[in-house]
Amino acid sequence: MAEKVKTYQNVNAQAEELSFGISKMQAIYAKRQGKVDKPHRHNFFTVLLFKNAKGKHKIDFNTYTLGKQQIYFVAPGQVHQVIEEKASTGYSMVFSYQFLVENAIPLSFIERLNLFQNYGDTPPLKTTTQQFEKIINYAEQIFDSFHQNTPYKFMAIGALLKLLLIACNNSCTLDREATDAEQAGENLIRAFKTSVEQNYKSQHTTAFYAEALHITPDHLNRTLKVKMGKTAKDYLTTRLITEAKRLLYFSDLSNKEIAYHLGFNQPGNFSAFFKNYTKVSPSGFRKTILQN
Fold first, then answer.
1. At 7, is the secondary structure helix, strand, or coil?
2. What's residue 291's pLDDT?
3. Which of 169, 157, 25 is nearest to 96 (CA)?
């Protein structure tokens, strides 16, 4: 499958052994001489902390207005583009799965935070001034540590990163309900998400996932509605639509090939499904997005 848009594989192209990086936003702007980076995706996690910014941030074909005291979380694989009207102030942090392993940070910790979403709406985290100052202070400590050659510096960075992410999670104002719900509900949500990632290309029904989790469809839907504000069908639809958009944008696959790749028996069924939820045909979406 040929890809039209660049995927950044390593945290640092010049030093492939690095699994963590942090830069000031104004330094990135100066390095690019103000030119806008093209849409791309990463095989690592990205945290963007904006003290001040003006412009737009596009994530998975959703556009958000840049502003003050914003924090964005970009998961591996997401389509991503920052369009600045002037130099922003703040920090860009990137870290790989390998960094988590090297610093004994379980992937389950990242998943429980509900900050990195692989698809769907990923609006910025908005905080109070006091909350943001606490979070940006962690970022400044991480930046200072990264640029010092001291023993155990990456262990220190790992510890500070955990504190920063916990502070972000505790300040979370994203539109999600009942974030402190019982552990059983949290475990069910994680199991459901894992099952969707493994099966969404071939299984499109709520009944399949409920059976796999040994619960009823009603139980699954009630839990998802409380925890995420959406039903299992809503979640599956978002996952399929996002993947379809990525394939239409990134690949040279035909609409027919994408339909079969995503488990639709007939290309016409895929086109109808896509248009029903996006109000545009797959061909129309591909034409429009590539012109922008």
1. strand
2. 64
3. 157
Quote the pLDDT of residue 23.
95
CA–centroid distance for 47 within its chain = 10
Helix 129-146 and helix 153-170, axial crossing angle in degrees, nearest 10: 170
pLDDT tens digits for range 115-170: 887 776 788 998 999 999 999 999 999 999 999 999 999 999 999 999 999 999 88
Q: What is the pLDDT of residue 174?
A: 45
DSSP H helices in the chain: 25-31, 97-102, 107-113, 129-146, 153-170, 183-199, 206-212, 217-228, 232-250, 255-261, 267-278, 282-291
> Which residue do the tokens 């103000």 mark?
34
| Strands lying side by side in the sheet with 55-59 | 62-66, 55-59, 80-84
User: Are the beta carbons of 48 and 59 closer than 8 angstroms?
Assistant: no
CB 111 within 8 A of CB 73: no
Distance CA 273, CA 238 (A): 11
Helix and strand numbers (H, E) in the chain are 12, 10
What is the identity of the amino acid at 77?
A: G
List CB contacts of 201: < 8 A, sequence separation 6 or more. Answer: 243, 261, 262, 263
Amino acid at site 143: F
What is the predicted pLDDT for the residue at 179? 44
Q: Cα separations (Å) of 257 from 203, 264, 266, 267, 290? A: 17, 10, 10, 8, 19
- The stretches in the chain having pLDDT less than 50 are 1-2, 173-181
In this prediction, residue 136 carries a pLDDT of 97
Neighbours of 15 (CB within 10 A): 9
C-alpha span between 209 and 191 (Å, rounded): 10
